[in-house]
């Protein structure tokens, strides 16, 4: 899971595996596995989160 700076998760939400939350996003709903979300409120823009998280986290 990658939670970018300035993001907010409002209330108890379920965040799936391999999720990317874009900077400044406000999460108000549960997020399913391998989703990429952004916006206010956060909306799914891609279901390819697994590939993206592997790329961003491979050096850590």
From TrEMBL:
The keyword Transferase applies. Gene3D superfamilies: Hexapeptide repeat proteins. InterPro entries: Trimer_LpxA-like_sf. Keywords: Transferase. The keyword Transferase applies. GO terms for molecular function: transferase activity. This is Serine O-acetyltransferase (Serine acetyltransferase).
């Amino acid at each position: 899971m990658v939670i970018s700076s300035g993001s907010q998760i409002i209330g108890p939400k379920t965040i799936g595996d391999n999720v990317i939350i874009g900077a400044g996003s406000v999460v108000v709903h549960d997020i399913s596995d391998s989703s990429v979300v952004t916006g206010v409120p956060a909306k799914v823009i891609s279901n390819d989160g697994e590939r993206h998280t592997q790329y961003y986290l491979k050096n850590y």
